[in-house]
Specification:
single chain, 8-stranded antiparallel beta sheet, Lipocalin, alpha+beta, disordered N terminus
């Protein structure tokens, strides 16, 4: 199969050694296929910088950086450059809970209310039956990303307020019947760690996990991405151009995604996980029993066949364990997870029976890049047939982009441009309230409407009439990339009954869960 010519960068990669363990014996040269994949993926998917880590049999094969920390500025990514690893943090939270189980301070299958008596879901049965394990495995009955608007974009709600507002979130399915990824229940898991240990989630993870693993360059707060030092700048495609964007800086959701780490430190983390909790000095971070819990499938996940271009990535099973996804690839069990924040995407993949681990951290929002590099590396160590994963994922990406554009086009073509709002614009203005999010203000000035989410400073936008009683919220912060429809329903007397929202584009991140809002006018008493 045709491959990109080997570049100077690729030659450098082929002779790189792991910076994480300078005293370790010199590992074998990195195969050219992986070198080519890194260079091609960065170019094809416009990734300014990335960190790649490969570990095998307890040794670091590679832990280094490529590209630059910030487009247009000096400063190369190296083995110590930190990236936001986002939801790859969830495995650290699960591991922390495992340590507390080992100490006899809590149980996986004990009710959450045993440790947090105030905890509630919207259904009393679910509240009563929800266990610590349930918090981690995405089977609560909440819909995809439910409640994320409580913290994403950055809100003024604190962690306690977010956790307590979960009781107002409607359930999308029955309890334990379906998989739907969420973040807010990991905040509750973090609260259990605090309640049981007497330490904040940040202090517990820093002292009980990072320090013992030797991850001295990693941090445990989203806000650390705002600090000076050896940290990659997040980038994203904004209105057609890849450029630097503002980091996510709120610490409300650290237990779900707050860790910033590097190639060198992720190598250490994977080595300990692949050793099933054994530290390099022979002592244990966690027990064999905890290792089994962390990597045993609990919640089955949808597992459709992939597009034909990436058919080799097909799996026979796929599910969620505790902070990890488990699946198969070419006859081997895979333990993996991805992470996504504004401007940061990451993927950690481990093959336990081969003691092989691959981690890719990027400062651009391209899942295609981390997938292409990961599968190329796995194939090399699995002695699998060569696949041009970069080209394959580019084709899949381009097809999906065309489908998304067509969906937006279909909606636009169906628009009745001759329609007018049922009411004078000033009649839509007022205070609205959603049971779980809180207040949203719509104002009228100079013949125009504007919308403001009162707890989310960046969610301020102008309302443009779309058709009938539907408007489009064009957010003034264009880095959000999440414009949304808002549709008003009227009472028989012409007053506004309620308003609902949904994203304009299928490409909008699922954490903008506008569709879960039911906005009702706040009536004067």
């Amino acid at each position: 199969m045709r491959r990109t010519p080997l570049t100077v960068l690729a030659v450098c990669i082929a002779f790189a050694i792991a910076g994480a363990q300078q005293s370790a014996p010199r590992p074998a040269a990195l195969p050219a296929a992986i070198a080519e994949s890194v260079a091609a993926a960065m170019k094809t998917f416009e990734v300014p910088g990335l960190a790649l880590t490969i570990v095998k049999d307890g040794d670091v094969v590679l832990a280094r950086g490529f590209g630059v920390k910030t487009l247009g500025k000096p400063g190369d990514v190296d083995a110590g450059t930190r990236f936001g690893i986002a939801s790859n943090t969830k495995a650290f939270t699960a591991t922390a809970l495992g340590l507390l189980v080992e100490e006899g301070k809590m149980q996986w299958d004990a009710p959450v209310q045993r440790y947090l008596p105030w905890f509630q879901m919207s259904d009393s049965y679910v509240t009563r039956e929800m266990t610590v394990r349930d918090l981690l495995v995405h089977r609560s009955g909440l819909g995809l990303g439910a409640g994320d608007l409580l913290w994403w974009p950055e809100s003024t709600y604190n962690r306690d307020e977010i956790a307590r507002r979960i009781r107002f979130l409607p359930l999308a399915t029955s309890f334990r019947s379906a998989y739907a990824y969420d973040n807010v229940l990991y905040l509750v898991a973090g609260k259990i760690i605090e309640e049981v240990s007497g330490l904040s989630w940040e202090d517990f993870v820093s002292t009980r996990i990072l320090a013992k693993v030797g991850m001295s360059g990693s941090t445990v707060r989203h806000s650390a991405a705002l600090a000076a030092g050896n940290i990659a700048t997040p980038h994203a495609r904004v209105e057609g151009t890849v450029r630097p964007i503002a980091p996510f800086g709120s610490d409300n959701t650290n237990p779900a995604g707050g860790i910033n780490s590097s190639a060198a430190d992720m190598a250490k983390w994977m080595i300990v996980q692949l050793a099933r909790g054994t530290l390099p000095d022979g002592t244990r971070l966690f027990s064999e029993a905890t290792a089994r819990e962390l990597t045993t499938l609990v919640t089955p996940m949808p597992n459709p066949d992939p597009p034909s271009e990436i058919a080799a990535a097909r799996s026979d099973f796929r599910g969620y364990a505790l902070g990890f996804e488990v699946r198969d690839y070419r006859g081997h069990k895979i333990v993996t997870h991805t992470g996504g924040l504004p401007g940061y995407l990451s993927k950690v993949t481990m093959v336990p029976d081969l003691r092989l681990g691959v981690a890719v951290l990027t400062n651009q929002e391209s899942g295609e890049a981390f997938n292409a590099i990961t599968f190329t590396a796995l194939d090399r160590f699995l002695h699998a047939p060569a696949v041009d994963w970069v080209t394959a994922f580019k084709t899949v990406r381009d097809t999906l982009a065309s489908e998304n554009a067509a969906a937006v086009g279909t909606t636009t073509e169906a628009r009745d441009r001759s329609s007018r709002p049922s009411l004078p614009l000033e009649k839509y203005a007022g205070e609205y309230r959603d049971a779980w999010y809180g207040d949203v203000a719509i104002t009228h000035a100079h013949g125009r409407l504007a919308i403001r989410f009162t707890k989310t400073p960046s969610l301020v936008g102008d309302l443009e009439h779309w058709q009938h009683d539907t408007f489009v919220a064009r957010w003034r912060d264009r880095e959000l990339r999440a414009d949304a429809f808002i549709t008003f329903a009227l009472n028989p007397d012409g007053s506004i009954d309620q308003a609902k929202m949904r994203a304009v584009s299928p490409e909008t991140d699922f954490s903008f869960d506008f569709q879960d809002l039911l906005l009702e006018p706040v009536r004067e008493p």
